[in-house]
Predict the 3D structure of the following.
Amino acid sequence: MIEMEKVYKTYPNGVVAINGIDVKINQGEFVYVVGPSGAGKSTFIKMMYREEKPSSGKIVINGVNLAKLKESKVPHLRRSIGVVFQDFKLLPRLTVYENVAFAMEVIGENSRNIKKRVMEVLDLVQLKHKARSFPDELSGGEQQRISLARSIVNNPGVVIADEPTGNLDPDTSWEIMNVFEEINNRGTTVVMATHNREIVNTMKKRVIAVEDGKIVRDEARGEYGLYE
């Protein structure tokens, strides 16, 4: 599903964010990316959906080498990858239903399929009853669940999440994680950068630890480690 080979990333200011990473993530895995602040986690995650390009090396997702992908092809790539952010990124003037439907409209899906699929994913995140609400009428946890629904509405093979519980209280964070686990149980690969020690240590998934731009630990049923 995801393969990185000899990947390096140096920013224009000379900061080396990724320093020679080799990793493979298989279809259906649930992977946490952990490490101290400034370790390179966000760059690692952003390169998977081509928010950042590697300075050198190969990144392959679903058979596509992102390092060589033309800019014009990036939107097409992102249709096959679900991305969930810490700050939700919902469109404030659209309803819950419209926010989720928008992801299908941009790929030209017909209205009948859109309605059916949007209601399916809203049911999955237990917010079908909020379909006509606007984002500012929702709690933070509800907004994140809508963001998650939008990320999976096009049936992506992989969902990439960057600190998805970072702005949420502990109980709400667990609600979100239960949805992620359900998505993963249905066959979607999940890769998540997080600082949430309790969630990582409790859920016992694969853990990739990044320090100084390098993978220093890769455990099948890992723990968070001694990071702040």
Notes: The longest strand covers residues 16-25. The two ends are 30 Å apart (CA to CA).
